[in-house]
Design goal:
With about 375 residues, this protein is α+β, with helices and mostly antiparallel strands. The protein has eight helices and 19 strands. The strands form four sheets. A six-stranded mixed beta sheet has the order 10-11-12-9-3-13, sandwiched between helices. The chain has a six-stranded antiparallel barrel with strand order 14-17-16-15-18-19. It has a five-stranded antiparallel beta sheet with strand order 5-6-7-4-8, covered by helices on one side. Helix 2 crosses helix 7. The longest helix has 11 residues. The protein starts with 9 loop residues before the first helix and ends in a 12-residue tail after the last strand. About 45% of the residues are buried.
């Protein structure tokens, strides 16, 4: 087994008493002494700081980098204005999802953030797929996520200009003399900021943020329950190479110009499969939200059945939602059982627990849109 990597904040995690676990090839904090539930609740009510430095940060340069990237993703990258970011998907020739990522128009180049578990394969995929003359730079930078309804209050003291941005905007700023790249975005459903900083300045910046009274260090455990309540997919669980964007409910990530009849229709891997599903709506399953009853969580891998005992799907993420006050999950069900309000049954250790197909997100989003 290869040795686990460390982020620039590894020493700080140990100092703060984090419980460290293997995750995507890194030793990462799953929780701190506060505990997962309280960390979750603190992020929802105040402000949490997450170390997401294990994510891959890349720069794409060359002639028309947006057009080049569009050969690999179905998103509208050409139409992305400078200083904005957009969610995108790497797709396979079969129409499956290879990874999801964020793309920033940084002017004369693109800044990409990819998932840690897919980082190496994404880099190889980009280098294989990009046309000649394009350069991909792999960055060695820290990435911190400041999330919660009081994130803007904290940021207003450190970098007031960043607070002028709205959800999905991106800019370059300074905090206490550190040069930082900040986007107003995150993975919790709350308002917040993701801050990219030089690796050797990451710990000093994290300490500066943690010194603010509203901020607590938050681990991967609460990050997972927060994103689940927010209805956000986790790659390798809710989306994967066997799932198309249409099945995953991510049609909105396929830009209008890339669809049939659009000015730049198709041209990405799996376009025929994916655009057929968009137009014909003949896919067989769909990702849905699920609300449970009582307190028993319904975990990933649990099978779902209809009232007659027929198997209709599977749970891909699940747990108890501290902010919702009941079990929440997402998974895939047959289209015949995907309507909001329908009842399905989760097989938990031989017991069939009722769940209701629900809209996502399960909590009202706090994104700042101005």
């Amino acid at each position: 087994m290869s040795e686990l990597k460390h982020t620039p904040l590894h020493g700080l995690h140990r100092e703060l008493g984090a419980k460290l676990v293997p995750f995507a090839g890194y030793e990462m904090p799953v929780q701190y002494p506060l505990g997962v539930k309280k960390e979750h609740e603190h992020t929802r009510s105040a402000c949490g700081l997450f170390d997401v430095s294990h994510m891959g940060q890349l720069l794409l340069r060359g002639p028309s980098p947006a057009e080049a990237l569009e050969t690999l993703v179905p998103a509208d990258i050409v139409g992305l204005e400078p200083g904005w970011q957009r969610y995108a998907l790497f797709t396979s020739e079969a129409g499956g999802i290879l990874d999801d990522l964020m793309v920033v128009n940084a002017g004369d180049h693109l800044y990409l953030v990819v998932n840690a578990a897919c980082k190496e394969q994404d880099i190889a995929h980009l280098r294989r797929g990009l046309s000649a003359g394009h350069e991909l730079e792999v960055l060695d930078r820290g990435l911190l996520a400041l999330q919660g309804p009081k994130a803007a209050e904290v940021m207003a003291r450190l970098c007031p200009a960043a607070c002028e941005m709205v959800f999905m905007q991106h800019g370059r700023f300074e905090i206490d003399g550190f040069s930082v790249w900040i986007s107003r975005s995150g993975y919790t459903g709350e308002d917040g900021f993701e801050i990219s900083v030089a690796a050797d300045q990451s710990e000093a910046l994290a300490r500066r943020l943690l010194a603010e009274p509203e901020v607590e260090a938050i681990g991967l455990g609460a990050r997972d329950s927060l994103r689940l309540e927010a209805g956000l997919c986790l790659y390798g669980h809710d989306i994967d190479t066997e799932t198309t964007p249409v099945e995953a409910g991510l049609v909105w990530a396929i830009g209008q110009p890339r669809r049939r009849g659009g000015e730049r229709a198709g041209g990405f891997p799996g376009a025929d499969v994916i655009l057929h599903q968009v137009a014909a709506k003949d896919h067989q399953r769909k990702r849905v939200g699920l609300l449970g009853e009582g307190r028993a969580p319904v975990r990933e891998g649990v099978e779902l059945f209809d009232a007659e005992g027929g198997r209709i799907g599977i749970v891909t993420s699940g747990g108890f939602g501290p902010s919702v006050g009941r079990p929440v999950a997402m998974g895939y069900v047959a289209l015949s059982h995907a309507e909001i309000g329908m009842q399905v049954f989760a097989d938990v250790r031989g017991k069939r627990l009722p769940m209701t197909v629900s809209r996502m997100p399960f909590v009202a989003p706090g994104y700042y849109r101005g």
